[in-house]
Amino acid sequence: MPAKPMPRRYQSAAAPRSHTGRVVDALGLAIVSGQLPPGNLLPGDGELTETYGVSRTVLREALKTLAAKGLVQAKARIGTRVRERAAWNFFDPDVLVWHARTGFDPDFLIHLGEMRMALEPEAAALAALRHTPQQLEAIWGWMRRLAAPGIGPDEFISADLGLHLAIAEAAGNPFFRSISALIEVAVLDILKVASPTNDPVKLAASVADHRGIVEAIETRNLDAARAAMRAVVQKGIDRSKF
């Protein structure tokens, strides 16, 4: 299946920077897309170095990176084998982006939504508890962009993502900041499937729902922030089913 083009910020961070990153990106995408299925041995080192035009040192570094992501496992005198999906690190930003580039299936989107449901309502509650004045202003800045008249699909996605990530930042917990890639990929793909910008009624409802989160954070109402975020995430899950 051909990879879908992604906005620059969602492309694999490794791909443009080095020969190693280029090999990691190509092999990782091939594994996640199923071109190299779980259980299969990768081609030998000689074939891979020729295919990608890199040295054995570069190839070894690339394979180490893929192994750290849980995608492959090397064994002496056997070779490097693609691991079963259960071993993959789905919290790794590259692994998530490779899934997005190959196209999420509905079940995967639902699973992403379930992870958002487990994480984001509590992040909103903690943001209500801990936010600084500067963080609150950043959150309102994204909210104002989200509510801008005549907003287009790309601008809506950018503002929606920015708002959710600013809330995660204001939670004051490094684990929420580290999980930001999960939030980014989930929100991006759900909005690509069902953006509300072409329907004034849905757009107004989405803006109002997000404003409810921000107002609860501003007033430090933990329960209201948690409930408002839960409602927004649930609507995203519902949209991903279609």
Structure overview:
- The protein is mainly alpha-helical.
- The protein folds into 2 domains: 8-87, Winged helix-like DNA-binding domain superfamily/Winged helix DNA-binding domain (Arc Repressor Mutant, subunit A, Orthogonal Bundle); 104-239, GntR ligand-binding domain-like (Four Helix Bundle (Hemerythrin (Met), subunit A)), CATH 1.20.120.
- It is 66% helix and 3% strand.
- The protein contains 11 helices and 2 strands.
- It has helices spanning 19-33, 45-52, 56-68, 93-102, 106-130, 133-146, 153-170, 174-178, 180-193, 200-218, 222-239; strands spanning 72-75, 79-82.
- The chain has a two-stranded antiparallel ribbon with strand order 1-2.
- A hairpin with a 3-residue loop joins β1 and β2.
- α1 crosses α3 (56-68), α4 (93-102) packs parallel to α9 (180-193) and α5 packs antiparallel against α11 (222-239).
- The longest helix is centred in the middle third of the chain and has 25 residues, at 106-130.
- The chain is elongated.
- The two termini are 21 Å apart.
- Residues 1-16 have low confidence and may be disordered.
List keywords for this structure.
Four Helix Bundle (Hemerythrin (Met), subunit A); 11 helices; disordered N terminus; 242 residues; Arc Repressor Mutant, subunit A; 2 domains; mainly alpha
